[in-house]
Amino acid sequence: MAAPARRRRPARPRRPARKPRRPTVRRRARQAATNRLLAAAFALALAIAAFREYPVTSSLLTALVLAAVAVYFLVSTGHLRLLTRPATSRADFTHAIAAYQHLTGPQFEHAIADLARRDPTVRTATVSGGSNDRALDVLVQLTDGRRIAIQCKRHAPKNRVGAPVIYAVNGTYRAYHRCDQAVIVTTSSFTPDAQRANAELDDPLRLIDGRALARRVSGGRPPWGA
User: 179-182 long-range contacts, Cβ below 8 Å, gap at least 24?
Assistant: First the structure.
């Protein structure tokens, strides 16, 4: 009699092979930090060995690298522009003087009044020029109560301000306009006679030539605060 056939067990489904776990972000960051640390240690070891073997050459290379790093820092932070400002200021002087010389007389007076108003110590700056202004073009009143008389002379570079202007302003700014100080502003310069006449006064006037005016435009100190 034949033996009964064995029942075959149903085949179990095979489990899919587990995928290898990818390294986490934190693990990758730790690995990157470790690699950087090893690279830095290796570079430091090479640098020490180079200094021992070639001290002069290594010192020069180190100085060059430090200089390059310093230049990069200055450029990236904008400090390099501060170091080169004087050259830019000289160009600004030329442009400022040329711009003022292209104005008319009344326009120049209004420009000087606007420039005075930039000073926080100025309360008002009024244009008073005219045919009978008695050597007063702009009247400036400061916050401390002082009154400043400004005479404006928009002249070409070769047309310098002479001594008669000094005498005219000195004779009117206190007695007639009741001002505490007088300033003469010009786009050109002052003659030697004008400078000597001003130096001989008991209370010399403030003389602002073209270059001093350009410095004031670029943020320099006002003449009544110098």
Answer: 179/136, 179/139, 179/147, 179/148, 179/149, 180/146, 180/147, 180/148, 181/146, 181/147, 181/148, 181/149, 181/206, 181/224, 182/148, 182/149, 182/150, 182/151, 182/206
